[in-house]
Amino acid sequence: MKSLQSFAFFLIFVVLAFDICESKDCSNPFKTIVVSQSDTSNFTTIQSAIDSVPTGNSQWIHIQISPGVYREQVFIPKDKPCIYVEGAGRNSTSIEWSSHLNATFVTKANNTVANGITFTASTIFFSMGKYGPKKNGVITAHERDSPNDTSGFVFKNCNISGTGGKTQLGRAMGPYARVIISDSYLSDVVRPEGWGPREFVGHEGNLTFVEEGNRGPGADKSKRVNWMKHLSGSELDKFLNISYIDEEGWISELPKTIFI
Ligand SMILES: *[C@@H]1O[C@H](CO)[C@@H](O)[C@H](O)[C@H]1NC(C)=O
Ligand SMILES: *[C@@H]1O[C@H](CO)[C@@H](O)[C@H](O)[C@H]1NC(C)=O
Ligand SMILES: *[C@@H]1O[C@H](CO)[C@@H](O)[C@H](O)[C@H]1NC(C)=O
Ligand SMILES: *[C@@H]1O[C@H](CO)[C@@H](O)[C@H](O)[C@H]1NC(C)=O
Ligand SMILES: *[C@@H]1O[C@H](CO)[C@@H](O)[C@H](O)[C@H]1NC(C)=O
Ligand SMILES: *[C@@H]1O[C@H](CO)[C@@H](O)[C@H](O)[C@H]1NC(C)=O
Ligand SMILES: *[C@@H]1O[C@H](CO)[C@@H](O)[C@H](O)[C@H]1NC(C)=O
Ligand SMILES: *[C@@H]1O[C@H](CO)[C@@H](O)[C@H](O)[C@H]1NC(C)=O
């Protein structure tokens, strides 16, 4: 009886401990940071707003980007999770970056979400290195090093377009990289294969690159890499849930509903 009691106590302890760990993931309430090119009392670049997020952050940070064309590379380091980058709509806010070495938007952190932004790649694209095709660029690079990482990079209602070359949607920067692009417009700037495994050739099974509900000439999936993931019914339902931006609810649910 005694041992049964201690076992029950132990179980309760485990459940509570687990719960506390989970809720620590990304906490509410949101802290909002405004980026604006016209109101200079705010941050004027997206990167400076990200730089202002404290390392080890665990609160959702909502970076609200006012209309404008932001010519910068965006980099979110590992120790700054829980960042939600929201544009003023894909016809109003765009991020343009061209580099032969770097992706437009790089995140190494858990729980990064982008919504309502146009990502534009322009000029000439060059080889990304020995694994990349020549004349090629890339929009996203996501790093996820463990199956336990709740990290993922979600693009919604975005517009991926560009001129002067072709680009991949993403390349794996970690063996479990995870990028989801949905309800977005993809121009013919997107290369038919869509995605690249980088040095994880032969281990593509653990990469999660998903495209659902996109349109435009670059959204044709018929020539995509054959290891792309397709979300099944209930997974997709959960995923589609995030299209309803509800600041009181969904975003705090995101790591649980989408990534676990
Ligand atoms: C930043 O922008 C917001 C909304 O546009 C405005 O209310 C605020 O006064 C601006 N300045 C600072 C320092 O936040
Ligand atoms: C953006 O512009 C395109 C093309 O003009 C239009 O079809 C689309 O509805 C617009 N989207 C939004 C969210 O305003
Ligand atoms: C690529 O981005 C990383 C992270 O922002 C930076 O440290 C590096 O200098 C960049 N490289 C180039 C060639 O721009
Ligand atoms: C993932 O978590 C499980 C359960 O907590 C643990 O057993 C496993 O070692 C972890 N895997 C990695 C790669 O960290
Ligand atoms: C992401 O979250 C998982 C636990 O949910 C943690 O083990 C991992 O270290 C985190 N990754 C980063 C880059 O912080
Ligand atoms: C996407 O962005 C490009 C470049 O800004 C623009 O020309 C195009 O009309 C946009 N398309 C949609 C459907 O939003
Ligand atoms: C995927 O990751 C697991 C560990 O979580 C590993 O055992 C497996 O070999 C990996 N699969 C591939 C195809 O690399
Ligand atoms: C979204 O998820 C929440 C919580 O999991 C659920 O209550 C709600 O019904 C879902 N909404 C849709 C449209 O699936």
Automatic annotation (TrEMBL):
UniProt xrefs under SUPFAM superfamilies = Pectin lyase-like
Question: Keywords assigned by UniProt?
Answer: Aspartyl esterase, Cell wall, Hydrolase, Secreted, Signal
Could you tell me where this protein is found in the cell?
Secreted, Cell wall
* Pathway where it operates: Glycan metabolism; pectin degradation; 2-dehydro-3-deoxy-D-gluconate from pectin: step 1/5
What EC identifiers does the entry list? 3.1.1.11
So which domain of life are we looking at?
Answer: Eukaryota
- GO terms of biological process kind: cell wall modification; pectin catabolic process
Q: Where is the Pectinesterase catalytic domain?
A: 33-127, 134-245
Signal peptide start and end residues: 1-23
Q: Which InterPro entries match?
A: Pectin_lyas_fold, Pectin_lyase_fold/virulence, Pectinesterase_cat
Top enzyme class = hydrolase
Alphabetically, the GO molecular function entries are: pectinesterase activity
Q: Which family does it belong to?
A: Belongs to the pectinesterase family.
Q: What is this protein called?
A: pectinesterase
Write down the species: Trifolium subterraneum
